[in-house]
Amino acid sequence: MNQSQAAQIKIRNFKRTFLILLVAWFMINLVQAYFMEIMSDEAYYGLYAANPDWGYYDHPPMIAFLIRISSFIFSGNLGIRFMTVFLQMGTLILIWKTLNNNEPESWNLYTFFIVAASIPMFSAYGVITSPDAPLLFFTALFLFAYKKFIGNQDWSSTLLLAVSMAGLVYSKYQAVLVIGFVILSNFRLLREFRFWLAGILALVLLTPHIYWQISNGFPSLQYHLIDRSAGFNWKYLIEYLPNQMAVFNPFTLGAAIYVLLKFKPSDEFNRSNYFQIIGFIGFFWITSFRGHVEPHWTVACSVPIILLLTEKSAENPSLFRYIRMFLLPMIFLMLVLRILLLTDFPFVKTTGFSGKREKFENIGSVAKELPVIYAGSFQKPSLYQFFTGNEATVISSVYSRQTQFDIWQFERKYHNKPVFVCINVEGISQVYGSGPLQFSGFIADSLQTVNRIKIKYDLVEDTYQTGDSVMISFTLQNTYEYDIDFNHHAFPASVCMVLIKGKKIYVQDVSLSEPVAIINGGKTIERSLTAVIPQLPDGDYSFGICLNSFFDPSPNSRFTKITIKNYD
């Protein structure tokens, strides 16, 4: 056997080993995806897929597209998760291709899989369907395309760059950071005509989503940039680093920090990996000053971490030994945890991976074919529809955030029809079941909701003393095509004043210049209210005029900043 033949055999063996490890990864994820109970957010995204559109309140549409494909092939859990499992295979292949191993060695291949498997959230998004799953794939595709582009700016690399950038934005809005940190690492890109061309092509591909945002008043930007801001809290700042340890595994994150401090970037592409890791973790640490940061928001930098640690372990024997000594045992512990998540142990139920099906099926046995109406939580109607196949919706209020249900407005088609209302109203609701399966609700012969009535008002002043009497003129616009009866026999409504400071919400009764009886469909009426500023701590508050019902005050008006002061 000559040297050339030996090299070919070595490459074939290497490819076979890679394929075996990839298939093993796929099968482990597939088994867990099939047996592990669906989470509430996954059920919510399942409704995205059932109602396809170019955008959604919380996220871009890529996750709906993936679930739509899954549901054509499978039902149940895999109808939600199959493409997530499949897509991670592509993510791993792209990351490995980006490493560009010209002389493949099995030990380096094992290191690659060990590092990838040691990152908890990277592994999780090979099973759990979330916008982070396509985000990871398109991050890997973007970095692969970027490496090709800086090596050879031909048409294929330009088109691949455009598609990857569009795919990133269609997946999750953290895409802006992935693209932005690459540009920050290499400003010369801004002098390259083909890079600008790739950006323009990406914008063309994104036109349907941009149009959806414009048509719906940019709800995603409002939610992510404004509504999620909660102000400074030491808790958010202190919890940030421990949460990142959980996302990346303290040993893996520690190794990445060691590489960042010990070695300088070797080239333009390597520098982009440094910027991604430092940029993501630093950016979200800064945002923790304005509110809670979800731990997984930084998960996109899993890709550069895998690239960096795999590459440096081939050059640094001490890092190679560290990975074998510390990361390999962590994989074993994570496998044990994944097996436990397939069981029905009590602690597993607290994680949201078990114990939901029976409860929602019990609600279905009471509601039968009636639509189920929830208050506040988008998770409950999503899970109810997944586990029972029957219709449900949620009525939001000032105590909850708005969601895609507020865009769908399913409650319109249930107006004046019988429904099962799954909330606890004293003196009306009945208690069903017992223990953890207990729930409250009542059957109503005619549903009426008031969330889509628009209230407009003008405040003369922006500073008030406690005890002040205020008079405000306002209009009520009925955007429904049917009449709204404020004296409805089952769902009456009343006007109220709402003051919000942080997480505290104060609801104040008001007196009207003239009672509101019925507002005809599409009509607008005028009223004025008189209210007393309640005894509250000094400070700034958000003021709004709302309609109160069994579903709590609904956000019918804009909220205006006012200042309340106490008498000296």
Structure, described:
With 568 residues, this protein is of the alpha+beta class. It folds into three domains: 3-340, no CATH class; 357-444, no CATH class; 453-565, Particulate methane monooxygenase, b subunit. Chain: A, domain 1 (Jelly Rolls), CATH 2.60.120. It contains 21 helices and 16 strands. Helix 4 (76-99) packs across helix 16, helix 15 (268-287) packs across helix 16 and helix 16 (302-315) crosses helix 17. It is globular, with a radius of gyration of 27 Å.
Descriptive tags:
Jelly Rolls; five-stranded mixed sheet; 568 residues; alpha+beta; single chain
Radius of gyration: 27 Å
Average the pLDDT over all residues and give the rounded result: 90
Give a short account of the largest sheet.
5 strands, mixed
Number of strands: 16
Q: What share of the residues lie within helices?
A: 40-55%
Low-confidence stretches: none
Structural class: alpha+beta
